[in-house]
Amino acid sequence: MAATIRDVARLAGVSPSTVSRALSLPGMVNAATRARVAAAVEQLGYEPNRAARGLITGRTGTIGLVVPDLANPFFASLTKGVQARARRHDVAVFVADTDEDPTAEAGLVRALSKQVDGVVLCSPRASDEELAAIAQDTTVVLVNRAAAGMPGVTYDNEDGMRQAVAHLVALGHRRIAWVGGPATSWSTQHRGLGLRNAVEELRAELAPVGNFAPTYEGGMAAADQVVATGATAVVSYNDLVAIGLLARLHGRGISVPGDLSVVGVDDIAMSRMARPALTTVRLPKQEAGRIAVELLLTMLDEPDTAVGAQGKLHGELIVRESTGPAPHN
Q1: Do residues 195 and 206 lie in contact, with contact meaning Cβ atoms separated by under 8 Å?
Q2: Dmax over Cα atoms in the chain, in whole Å?
Q3: How far is CA 26 from CA 19, 32, 154, 298, in A?
Q4: Which among 3, 214, 216, 235 could disulfide-bond with 244, CB atoms 3.0 to 4.6 Å apart, if both were Cys?
Q5: Which positions ≥6 away from 324 have C-beta within 8 Å?
Q6: CA 177 → CA 196, 206, 210, 233, 268, distances in Å?
Q7: 217-271 pLDDT, tens digit each
C-alpha cells in the first residue's frame, strides 16, 4: 500500500502537521526536522496527495491549456511540450480545444479558471481588449500571440518569412503568392507583414490570395486561386494548408516544383511524408510549450516579476523537394 503522511510522521518522529509544513512551507520548520522528514519521505516513497496539499498552499496543482485545434499537429506538439514541463513541476494539465471558434475562448478560460491555478492560451483570436478581460479571471500566459502587458511566447514570423522569400528569390522566383490563415490570427498578420517586407527588400512581387481555414481543406480551396495569380511560388500559412495545396495541384497535373514551388510553416511530421516532401519554416513547438509553463509558474510565484515577460523563438528554413528553380529560368 502507498505510504501515508502518518507513516512519514511516525518514521520521522514528528506530527503529521509538521510533515505538511515541512513539505509545503519548509521555511517554518527547522533544518534538522526538515532533514528527518525528507529522509522519511525518500525511504517510504511518499507522494503528497495533491488535493490535501492544495488545502495548505491554496493551489490546485493544475494548469489549463487552451488550443484552437488539437487535430492540428502543431498544437499536438506544443501540448506535449506543456505537459512534459508541467510534469517536472508535479503539475497536472487540463486541455481544452476551441475547435477554431474564437467565441469559445473566453468561456473556456473562465470555466477552467474555477479549477486551475492559471491558463496557457495558444494562438487566441480574441482582441487585446478581450484578452485583458480574460486575464482578470485567472493568470494567463499567451503562446503565438503578443498582447500589451501580458506574458507570452512568440515566434519571429518576420525572420521566418524572410528566410523563405530569400530561398525562393535565389531560385529565380519573382512573383510569390501568399495563402493566409484566419483573418483574426496574429500569425497571419505578422507572417503577411514579414512577406511584404521581404519581397520589397529582395525586389520580388507578392500576390496575396486571401484568408483560408488553417487546414488541409483550406489549402485545397486556395490552390486554383494560387494558380490564377501566375505566381511561380507560393508560401502558405502553415504546413496543413501547404499539403492541401500539393494535393490539389497534383490533381490538376501541375508539377511541384517544376511549375510551382510550395513552402509551408511549422515543420509538422507530415511535411516530411508529403510528396514531394515539403520545404517549410520549422518552428520550435515543444520549446514554446516548455517556456510557457515556466512563465506561468513564475507568474503564480512572483507576479510582479513576470508581468509582460516575453520569450521569442526563431524559426529555421528546412529545404526539401517542394521548391526548385523558377520555370523558364
Answers
A1: yes
A2: 85
A3: 9, 11, 36, 19
A4: 216
A5: 171, 257, 258, 261
A6: 11, 6, 10, 6, 22
A7: 999 999 999 999 999 999 999 999 999 999 999 999 999 999 999 999 999 999 9
> What cell was used for 327?
520555370
Helix (H) or strand (E) holding 262: strand 261-266
Estimate the crossing angle of helix 5-12 against helix 31-44, to 10 degrees.
120
Q: What is the per-residue pLDDT across 189-206, written as a single tens digit (0 to 9) for each?
A: 999 999 999 999 999 999
DSSP-derived secondary structure letter, 281: E
Strand-pair partners of 266: 282
pTM of the model: 0.82
H/E segment holding residue 210: strand 205-211
Give all strands of the β-sheet with 175-180 in edge-to-edge order.
205-211, 175-180, 233-236, 261-266, 279-282, 316-318
Residue found under cell 521569442 = 312
Give the three cell numbers for residue 41: 519521505
How long a stretch of residues is the chain?
329
- HSE toward the beta carbon, residue 198, CA cutoff 13 A: 28
Q: Choose the most confident range, by mean pLDDT, from 29-33, 46-50, 175-179, 300-304.
A: 175-179
Q: Which amino acid is at 83?
A: Q
Per-residue pLDDT band for 5 (boundaries 50, 70, 90) equals confident
CA distance 108 to 138: 12
Give the SS3 label for residue 279: strand
Report residue 103's pLDDT band, with 50, 70 and 90 as the boundaries: confident
Least reliable range by pLDDT among 7-16, 33-42, 95-104, 303-312: 303-312
Residue 199: is it exposed, middle or buried by C-beta count within 10 angstroms (0-12/13-18/19+)? Answer: buried
